[in-house]
Specification:
The complex is a heterodimer. Chain A is 0% helix and 51% strand. Chain A is built from no helices and eleven strands. Chain A is globular. By secondary structure, chain B is mainly beta. Chain B has no helices and nine strands. In chain B, the strands form two sheets. In chain B, strands 1, 3, 4, 7, 8 and 9 form a six-stranded mixed beta sheet that branches. In chain B, a hairpin with a 6-residue loop joins β3 and β4. Chain B is globular and about 40 Å long. In chain B, 40% of the residues are buried. The chains are: A mainly beta, B mainly beta. At the A-B interface, β5 and β10 of A face β3, β7 and β8 of B.
């Protein structure tokens, strides 16, 4: 059974750096083809893909946010970490992490999401 | 990379069929058979309903089907049920900017 859970601060101040951790079970991020991605959703708005890291440490980023994002993995801890610099109130959103199937083209298991509010 | 275009809302009565469109470009939907669809109930995480245009994950009702023509993908729900009322999002692989989501469609079951 695959499960994922996001953790991190619920409130950050403008200009601060956000660090979110996705802790997962039921699969290994050392298995060929597997990936873990981050997707966010501002309140009442649409989903937006942010980043994804593959089993082989290949990393992909949203072009519009690439300069602010870093994604890393700790295979031994079954964790993926996303950092986003220079947070702004428009970054207020629920942040989801999700498992990407070995085919790599869709997200078949999602965490429950964590709401991050950016406010002074 | 621009978001894929979906209608803001669709509605239907129980038992009817509805179709949600998802329009992209030749750089995403039109170039790859890698469109997926997600159902999201309020306050919940998205759930994968369709992948690779028309494939259903195990456990998803066969009332859900997907298709694609050119730059437009579609999700059809037949035999509409009250529990189908939710937001639906399409997503396409887009090459260099790997994934792009649609703006979402709110389905109302009348």
């Amino acid at each position: 059974q695959i499960t994922l859970k996001e953790s991190g601060p619920t409130l950050v101040k403008p200009t601060q750096t956000l660090t979110l951790t996705c802790t997962f079970s039921g699969f290994s991020l050392s298995t060929s083809g597997v990936g873990v991605g981050w997707i966010r959703q501002p309140p009442g708005k649409a989903l937006e893909w942010l980043a994804l890291i593959y089993w082989d440490d290949d990393k992909r980023y949203s072009p519009s946010l690439k300069s602010r994002l870093t994604i890393t993995k700790d295979t031994s801890k079954n964790q993926v970490v996303l950092t986003m610099t220079n947070m702004d109130p428009v970054d207020t959103a629920t942040y989801f992490c999700a498992h990407s199937d070995s085919s790599g083209w869709f997200f078949d298991y999602w965490g429950q999401g964590t709401l991050v509010t950016v406010s002074s | 990379q621009s978001a894929l275009t979906q209608p803001a809302s669709v509605s239907g009565s129980p038992g009817q069929s509805i179709t949600i469109s998802c329009t992209g470009t030749s750089s995403d939907v039109g170039s790859y058979n890698l469109v997926s669809w997600y159902q999201q109930h309020p306050g919940k995480a998205p759930k994968l309903m369709i992948y690779e245009v028309s494939k259903r994950p195990s456990g998803v009702s066969n009332r859900f089907s997907g298709s694609k023509s050119g730059n437009t993908a579609s999700l059809t729900i037949s035999g509409l049920q009250a529990e189908d009322e939710a937001d639906y999002y399409c997503c396409s692989y887009a090459g260099s900017s790997p994934w792009v989501f649609g703006g979402g469609t709110k389905l109302t079951v009348l």
